[in-house]
Amino acid sequence: MPFKKIGPQVFINLLFLLFSLACIFPLIAILSISFSSESDIIKNGYRLLPAMFDFSAYAYILYKPMQILNAFKVSLFVSFFGTVASLLVTAGIAYALSREDFKLKNKLSFYLFFTMLFNGGLVPTYMLINNYLHLSNTIWVLILPYLAVPWFILILRSFMQKIPHSIIESCMMDGASEFRIFFQIILPLAKPGLATVALFTLLQYWNDWWLSLLYIEKESLVPLQFMLYRMMNNITFLTNSSNTMPPGMRNVILPSESARMAMAILAAGPMLLVFPFFQKYFVRGLTVGAVKG
């Protein structure tokens, strides 16, 4: 085969290979730094391979393993249950907005768009959740605030608008109810859009630490991200106040950078395992939601 024909294909493959390596190298660097000692990082900087394997960062983070395990359980429950519940609510609203015969379609769309630009503010939201709904120190305060995100609703609505309305009309002529049309016809046809929104929602629940900072005081309800956030703050505080410590503790080097990278591995690891299951739907669902209006 002439080079003129295979040359562009080889160039494109090499370009994507280099791009893939550029994406993999930071992950390898983070993993390497997490297994490096803090003194080695200060002396030699970051490396793709540690000079000597050191587990002090993981030993510090996992000093109380049951506490970390409980935080994992809270994050897993909130992420799984919150994603399923949010997906049902988001899909229901998006389906209503995608219907041409829905009379309040324009008003509800404007309301959703308005809430994307303006919100009630931190103080009114805190008063509503804490004083009126009494959700503080409950697992529901980590789930309900993200139950219906306007941006996700608009993405899913744009995808559902591609489903021909004639399918819905034929189902209604056959006597199918709205619930049956929604669960047996619309949701299966909207799998790419649902997978895209589900991935975004899952990441939002998993990475959130702000709600627990505001509303959670019980140790049994602390999620993983907030616990790691507190650990990192403790390390930073102890490192900055080393001059005020007793003389015998001033020379102790705490795992600061290595602990930060170890926390990133613990926090991002489960999501790296989940992403491949959504990959085949992700690009299609996101592209349709971006260009269809």
What keywords describe this structure?
single chain, mainly alpha, globular, MetI-like fold, disordered C terminus, 293 residues, 13 helices
Offer a concise description of the structure.
The protein has 293 residues and is mostly helical. The chain is built from 13 helices and no strands.
Order of helices and strands: HHHHHHHHHHHHH
Number of strands: 0
Q: Can you tell me the CATH class?
A: Mainly Alpha
- The end-to-end span amounts to 45 Å
CATH superfamily: MetI-like
Q: Globular, elongated, flat, extended or rod-shaped: what is the shape?
A: globular
Low-confidence stretches: 289-293
Number of helices: 13
Mean pLDDT: 82
Class derived from helix and strand content: mainly alpha
Biggest sheet statistics: none
Could you walk me through the main structural features you see in this protein, from its secondary elements to its overall organization?
- With 293 residues, this protein is mainly alpha-helical.
- The protein has a single domain, classed as MetI-like (MetI-like fold, Orthogonal Bundle), CATH 1.10.3720.10.
- Helices cover 72% and strands 0% of the residues.
- The protein has 13 helices and no strands.
- It has helices at 3-34, 38-44, 56-61, 65-98, 105-117, 122-132, 150-160, 165-173, 178-189, 191-207, 210-215, 224-240, 257-291.
- Helix 4 (65-98) runs antiparallel to helix 10 and helix 5 runs antiparallel to helix 7.
- The longest helix has 35 residues, at 257-291.
- It is globular, with a radius of gyration of 25 Å.
- It starts with a helix and ends with a helix.
- The model is unreliable at 289-293 (pLDDT under 50).
